[in-house]
Amino acid sequence: NIGLEMVAKSPADGYTLIAMPNNLSINAPLYGKLPFDPIKDFAPIILIGSSPVFIGVNSSVPVKSVADLIALAKAKPGTLSYASCGNGTPQHLAGELLKAVARIDLTHIPYKGCSLAIADLLSGQVQIGFSTVANFSVHLKSGKINGVAITSKKRSALVPDIPTVAESGLPDYDVDVWFGLLGPGSLPPEIVAKVNADVNKILASPDIRERMLKSFYEPIGGTPGQFAALIQSDLVRFGKLIRDVGIKVD
């Protein structure tokens, strides 16, 4: 929020921009009062990339799919817990959205970071984990964690063999961790267009695409309008989820 406030109040000359994940779409409904307006005070320039949230289950739990997870949660309501990277994170929202659309009861255990959440999932302190693809990738071959699903609408090139939650009978389920570039709200359209074109050109580079994929982000690109529409859509749907569930930050 500090970085966003600084950019919102900076001169609209193109020299002060911010590259950030989708906290902009989450923090506004999460915190309520912020020293900036998430729509009026920022000029979306380009969506750089995205990565789905990964749902993993400790291998001691008899779950191989989302259908298995839902069935077990309904058979034993309130007995399963899931770890996230912290209160109000995309991973937390992904867990709460699954609870809502599948109508299941899971206990949320927030951690101060994704690595700590994975550590307790590996040890069996929690049964389910919602974390990053990067955090899970090194543990899938060990057999200690079963990869159940990813949370994006479509399958990801990062983990092409892992199905989506939407494939499992929950078609409206979709949560991504995206990363984009924004400037001050009054940034002139010609500057927005110039930076957008430059970044799109960079994202088209095979070398850059390969580096991003190795960092567990899929390069996207596109127009400022497409990025703005994504931010607005996320503000609405995440805002509703946060209000309905009553998510609070410490």
Task: Please supply descriptive tags for the structure shown above.
single chain; 250 residues; alpha+beta; D-Maltodextrin-Binding Protein, domain 2; 2 domains; eight-stranded mixed sheet; 9 helices
Short structural summary:
The protein is α+β, with helices and mostly antiparallel strands and 250 residues long.
Can you summarize the main beta sheet? 8 strands, mixed
CATH class of the largest domain equals Alpha Beta
Give the strand tally: 8
The stretches of 5 or more residues where confidence is low (pLDDT under 50) are none
Overall structural domain count: 2
Task: Classify the beta-strand content into a percent band.
Answer: 15-25%
Task: Give the overall silhouette.
Answer: globular
Q: What is the arithmetic mean of pLDDT? A: 95
Task: Give your account of this protein's structure.
The protein has helices at 2-8, 23-31, 66-75, 90-102, 114-123, 133-137, 189-203, 206-214, 224-245; strands spanning 18-21, 42-58, 81-84, 107-110, 128-132, 145-150, 176-184, 218-219. Helix content is 40%, strand content 20%. Strands 1, 2, 3, 4, 5, 6, 7 and 8 form an eight-stranded mixed β-sheet that branches. It starts with a helix and ends in a 5-residue tail after the last helix. The chain is α+β, with helices and mostly antiparallel strands. The protein has two domains: 2-50 and 175-245, 3-Layer(aba) Sandwich (D-Maltodextrin-Binding Protein, domain 2); 51-168, Periplasmic binding protein-like II (D-Maltodextrin-Binding Protein, domain 2, 3-Layer(aba) Sandwich). The model has no long low-confidence stretch (mean pLDDT 95).
